[in-house]
Design a protein that fits this description.
By secondary structure, this protein is of the alpha/beta class. The chain has 14 helices and twelve strands. The strands form two sheets. Strands 1, 2, 3, 4, 5 and 6 form a six-stranded mixed beta sheet that branches. A six-stranded parallel beta sheet has the order 9-8-7-10-11-12, sandwiched between helices. Strand 1 and strand 2 form a beta hairpin. The two termini are 36 Å apart. Bound molecules: nicotinamide-adenine-dinucleotide. Nicotinamide-adenine-dinucleotide binds next to helix 5 and helix 6.
Length: 370
Amino acid sequence: MDFFDNIEKNDHEQVVFCSNKEAGLKAIIAIHDTTLGPALGGTRMWDYTDDEAALKDALRLSRGMTYKAAVSGLNLGGGKAVIIGDSATQKNELLFRTFGKFVEGLAGRYITAEDVGTTVKDMEYVRMETKYVTGISKALGGSGDPSPVTSYGVFVGMKACAKFKWGSDSLKGKKIAVQGAGNVARYLCEHLYNEGAEIYVTDINESKIKKVLETVKAKVVKPEEIYDVDMDIFSPNALGAIINDDTLKRIKAEIIAGGANNQLEDENVHGPMLIEKGILYAPDYAINAGGLINVANELEGYRQDRALKQAEGVYDIISSILEISAKEKIPTYQASNKIAEARLEQMGRISNIYTGKSNFSGRFGELIKR
Ligand code: NAD
């Protein structure tokens, strides 16, 4: 593998390889772009088959974070870290504190958070060595669980889709099939229920469904049957790659809008297929940006009311994406990428004007000078 070819291909700014024998740490921190602000993105712990797979993942995920922050109007860049190892057996205080020292060494160019394979507790160890970590518990002044804010963004994004498709953003009486009954889905179902939607829900874990039914009336369907429900809206909130050749034959919804990451199995194939089938698809990374909006709020001293207010902006973001997609006849994820790239390009043009002042007043204010 040619490392520099890979790094240059997607215009990454910096890739840091972190190694410490005593702690058994092997990690990669990828900083994709800091045009808009410090690179923020979680730390994934995964037992990669080889180092090349770990690097590829870090490069791909950090680039995704640049686009997510840019389209959401946040003053953040894109970054991501991966720790190579088994999160079930190889975690300990030393590992995460050592990783925290490497994050600290980047002096704020990269801010970390939890991700697949890492938890709030792990991030608390990281925080012992660096302040450049978000998504820590409320007790330590952090933002805690981001799901309520993510769900709210998904809810308003879904309403924007309804407005575009049907001329009204009311979801009253709409049949909505929700895949997954976890954190994001549970809060989403509450919003949908209060709006008067007819909810169908599924999960492989029955206890999760029970929890949803404590506050919401919904019809329960088997996991494999969710794609065949007679529905207006399909809302994926569990797994990735669930929009594929097989499910697209079965989904009769007019809108797909949910919080799950990486919903399209293959963007280049299933993006155009959604257009052909006349299904309005809210790009996952734009509609689920509430999670990032939530942690970004931590940088200024966390307040959930402010985070929820900002997540309301997902409505306008999704509306703009749908308009561009319809006007230019391009898949919605391409329209979303275009908005992100335009913002990066425009803000990049003024990034050399030094004002001596920060836009932010919080604990990271000194880093965000643009
Ligand atoms: P979660 O683990 O709380 O919920 C996921 C649920 O999906 C679980 O209850 C699980 O049992 C269920 N599930 C797994 N396989 C399934 C299947 N085949 N059919 C039906 N259900 C299945 O996770 P979450 O925090 O609610 O996140 C859901 C999705 O949203 C993930 O893709 C996540 O990456 C994405 N996301 C979450 C946030 C957030 O703030 N939590 C932010 C952005 C994106």
